[in-house]
Design goal:
The radius of gyration is 38 Å and the shape is elongated. The protein has 21 helices and 34 strands. The N and C termini lie far apart (about 95 Å).
Length: about 850
């Protein structure tokens, strides 16, 4: 699509009256450039100035080559974000081609932004684009493209600066590959240069380059892999993006990387390369230079260092991340021996990062104040530092300056203190020290001043992030069980991993609910969304399911009640849930799923299966939903696993494959160490989502209880029938101790239920571990009240007191709309 009608204007003012401060600073910056006009270094420096003085996010220069405008140099964020191509046809309708042909600047707003005739960027967001012609030089001029995300686009002063800088750009002479019958590539190499054949991987290097790598000429085999193998692993991906033809386009490239020389020394190198095309336009040969980057570069290149620091701080979330970014950006370029970054809290500096981290590398006073991993130094012991913080400006003390011991030992060869301003106050300080005398040049001072402002703002933002993250973590922990209960005949463990993406609070939860008669409910669920609302709803659903389960409802009724509750809460969120009721005596389980993942079962022989279970819809979607139950038989040694989708699903892995991978991991695990199994399963967790995992190993009960039940009919002889049933049960079980006490308790509890309630009454008797349990259930939810005092004239109220006196323990529990009054009698 052809770009819309553009506004054409002359942005370069002939007089000085309309020039503003930023334009004047741009003029002064141009005067400080030492590189010759028409050199690649000069062009690269001016492009960096475009980003500094125009507020642009990316800038690119194109020059005519044959019938196309070809990219010579770019700076800023990746060009692909704004669909800036490597070249454009001279006769096409791109902004670059039109500006070049017309010889006039063109300005495009968000509704007009198009960088090619057939492409319009809409997926990333609105932006504005400027296209300015370059002065006609010996190589045919060219075009400058600049892009900004500023809502107002390029304002008047931005346009003045862009026009000024475009006038200062002269495209260098295009590089031409040497003819085949010319001298060898090594003969043509400049000092510290190289030539890499992209098809064979053979590289020609001079002796100076080999000396940088610490390799002798006789030891070098001519393969680029030999040099790449010396690269520090963390820097290898960025270096590969330069030396692999598929990863780069024709044009200039520049980066810094680290190598480890054969002596073990680590060294910073700087690569500048130009990829030359073959006759068919494909990359043919990479030529360039490799220089020592251990020393701080001078001139306008400090702008690039500040830009890289700003980019690192933009993605730093925590105070520790900010501190590490500052240390990485400053210590190596400044050749500093130590650097510390600390937050200012009241009258103390709380250090967040020390580099090096060893205590002996820091002043004795600091070590005496260490209360944890990092020092907590009082400012009163460092009046010079306190004065620098009050003034709010970077302070530099050369070697030999008399300072208090707490500072002198940080930098005996020179010390720099950077107050970190933010929001009208000091957020902290950065201390940089050298052991040997260090000369502070103007470039270093400019770099330190610019870095201080960026670090201060980032530190304040990260401090707020850490505080909010701690609040989020506290909220999350309070909504989940603090510990899991001890189960008869089974062991359960759980794991929860919060997302590492921002401050989102997840809605994943788990629970293990002990139930009467040696049952246990395993629950896992996930509320839609990642915010405080989802976490709050998660806490409500966990509480509701626990309450319904303790009331004695079967699994399908528990989930159905939770569904109706969520429907009545008038929320737009829904929840998924898996509820498994396990009978630890019989070794059976009943599973109900509400839109959730099925359980994964590991059998005692090591085989695994993803349990095929019927499922209902998620909670909160359909009012009259059905939630069918599926039976799962268990044998001693079986392992049941419930999880949320964060463990088995990601952008690279679909749900089915994730469940199969989880089943395979369980098959290879040792269920005897359940905690280790859980930790191993979390290895592949998707950290962009919350993960909840619940495991239970069923071992079987070593001693199963004896049970009998009796339905009490409402007849005049009801209590007598209950006593006779109890006597027969005692004889059958061989119980001869405490029989009178047991019969009296049965009489009191049955009488109390018949007198004070209506409907059915049930008597349950249980014997296990020399304890006899009597339980009487009725349909009334009212709990019997123990009288505080009974007079001589009272005709009732003594039953509960008798039960309490004869029992080792007693209480009531809700069951299916009613209650159960129980007591246990110890058989001595």
């Amino acid at each position: 699509m052809r770009p819309g009608r553009a506004v054409i204007a002359d942005v370069v003012s002939d007089g000085g009256a309309g020039r503003r401060t930023r334009t004047l600073r741009a003029e002064l910056a141009l005067k400080t450039l030492h590189a010759e006009p028409g050199s690649p270094e000069r062009l690269r420096s001016v492009i960096e100035l475009v980003l500094v003085f125009s507020g642009g996010v990316v800038a690119a220069v194109y020059a005519p080559r044959d019938d196309r405008l070809t990219l010579l140099e770019s700076a800023g964020v990746p060009r692909s974000l704004y669909e800036l191509r490597d070249s454009y046809p001279l006769t096409g309708g791109s902004p670059a081609a039109e500006s070049y042909r017309l010889g006039q600047p063109l300005w495009f707003g968000p509704e007009e932004s198009a960088v090619s005739p057939d492409t319009r960027r809409t997926s990333v967001g609105d932006f504005s684009l400027a296209a300015l012609p370059l002065p006609t030089g010996p190589h045919g001029g060219g075009c400058l493209i600049a892009v900004t995300d500023s809502p107002g686009g390029f304002d008047t002063e931005d346009r003045h600066c862009l026009g000024l800088l475009a006038e200062a750009m002269v495209c260098p002479e295009p590089a031409r590959p040497a003819p085949e019958d010319a001298l060898t590539a090594e003969d043509l190499l400049l000092p510290s240069s190289f030539s890499l054949a992209m098809d064979t991987g053979r590289v020609e290097v001079d002796d100076e380059t080999l000396e940088l790598f610490g390799i002798g000429r006789e030891d070098f085999d001519g393969k680029v892999e030999t040099l790449l193998g010396m690269t520090v692993p963390e820097d290898l991906p960025s270096l590969m993006s330069v030396v692999e033809a598929d990863h780069m386009s024709v044009g200039e490239r520049e980066l810094e990387f680290r190598i480890r020389r054969p002596t073990g020394e680590q060294k910073w190198l700087r690569l500048r390369g130009h990829l030359l095309p073959a006759a068919d336009g494909q990359p043919d040969r990479l030529v360039g230079t490799v220089t020592d980057a251990s020393k701080l570069r001078s001139g306008v290149n400090e702008v690039a260092r500040v830009q890289r620091l700003a980019a690192a701080l933009a993605s730093a979330g925590t105070v520790r991340d900010v501190s590490q970014a500052v240390v990485t950006a400053l210590r190596q370029p400044l050749l500093a021996d130590r650097i510390a970054l600390a937050e200012l809290e009241g009258d103390r500096l709380v250090v967040t990062v020390l580099d090096p981290p060893e205590p002996e590398a820091w002043p004795e006073l600091w070590r005496s104040e260490w209360r944890s991993e990092w020092p907590d130094a009082p400012i009163r012991t460092m009046p010079t530092l306190a004065a620098a913080l009050r003034e709010g400006r970077a302070a530099i003390w050369p070697a030999g300056t008399p300072l208090e011991p707490a500072l002198a030992d940080v930098g005996p060869g020179g010390l720099a203190v950077l107050p970190l301003p933010a929001g009208g106050r000091m957020a902290g300080a950065c201390l940089i020290g050298w052991d040997t005398p260090h000369d502070f040049g103007p470039d270093e001072r400019a770099l330190l001043t610019a870095s201080a402002g960026l670090a201060g703002q980032a530190l304040m933002r990260a401090h707020a992030f850490d505080a909010e993250h701690e609040l989020v973590g506290t909220l999350q922990r309070t909504l989940l069980p603090r510990r899991l209960p001890t189960l008869p005949g089974a062991v359960a463990v759980a794991r929860y991993l919060p997302t590492t993406a921002g401050l989102e609070v997840g809605g994943d939860w788990y629970d293990v609910i002990p139930l009467p008669d040696n049952h246990v409910a395993l629950v896992i669920g996930d509320v839609q969304g990642h915010n405080a609302g989802a976490a709050t709803l998660m806490g409500q659903m966990r509480t509701a399911l626990r309450a319904y389960a303790v009331e004695g409802h079967p699994p399908d009724v528990v989930v159905s009640h939770a569904n109706r509750l969520l429907m009545d809460m008038e929320t737009d969120l829904f929840a998924t849930c898996a509820y498994v009721d396990v009978d630890l005596e019989e070794g059976t389980a009943w599973c109900v799923r509400a839109g959730h993942l099925p359980p994964v079962l590991r059998h005692p022989d090591g085989t695994t299966e993803i349990v095929t279970t019927e499922g209902g819809p998620p909670l909160g979607v359909v009012t009259q939903a059905e939630f069918p139950m599926t039976e799962i038989p268990l044998r001693p040694g079986a392992l049941v696993a419930l999880t949320t989708d964060g463990l088995v699903e990601s952008a690279e892995l679909d749900l089915e494959d994730g469940l199969r991978r989880m089943a395979d991991q369980m098959a290879a695990s040792d269920p005897a160490h359940l905690g280790l199994v859980a930790d191993a399963l979390l290895t592949y967790a998707n950290r962009s989502d919350d993960v909840a995992l619940l495991l239970m190993r069923y071992d079987g009960m070593a001693l199963r209880p004896e049970r009998e039940s009796w339905t009490v009919w409402r007849v005049p002889q009801a209590v007598g029938h209950a006593r006779r049933f109890t006597k027969r049960t005692l004889r059958a079980w061989g119980v001869t101790q405490q029989t009178d006490a047991i019969l009296l308790v049965v009489s009191e509890l049955v009488t109390n239920a018949l007198v004070h309630t209506d409907g059915q009454v049930r008597l349950d008797l249980t014997l296990i571990n020399n304890r006899f349990r009597v339980a009487v259930a009725d349909i009334s939810p009212r709990t019997p009240i123990k009288p505080t005092s009974i007079g001589w004239e009272a005709t009732g109220g003594r039953g509960i007191l008798l039960v309490e006196a004869l029992s080792a323990a007693w209480g009531t529990v809700p069951v299916s709309g009613g209650k159960q009054v129980w007591c246990e009698i110890a058989l001595s």
